[in-house]
Amino acid sequence: METNGYRLLLPEGTLDYFIISDVKESSTDIIIFLEEKNEVPSEYSNMKVESKGFYDPVVVQDFPIRGKKLFLNIRRRRWIVKDDGRYVSRNWKLVAEGCRMTHDFASFLKELY
Q: What domain of life (predicted)?
């Protein structure tokens, strides 16, 4: 399925950190599946880290579009610091301060952790 047009429905800056992995559309709903890109957060760039998959997905309801409910199914990535074995994820507060992503959306993502 072509997902390029669905990018217009996402909060500004979302595609800086996520890819649209899938879209499911029915007569009543649109579900956009987002996966965080495998790009190590800058605060861990000087450490040896390895991607270890994703946290459980979270579904967020957004504004309806043309009479259809819009849901964002968000999968946030986690990395493991090889030296000490702890799991880390992107600091969404820093992201909100340094990019175009809306502060509300970044705050929501930060609360997921």
A: Bacteria
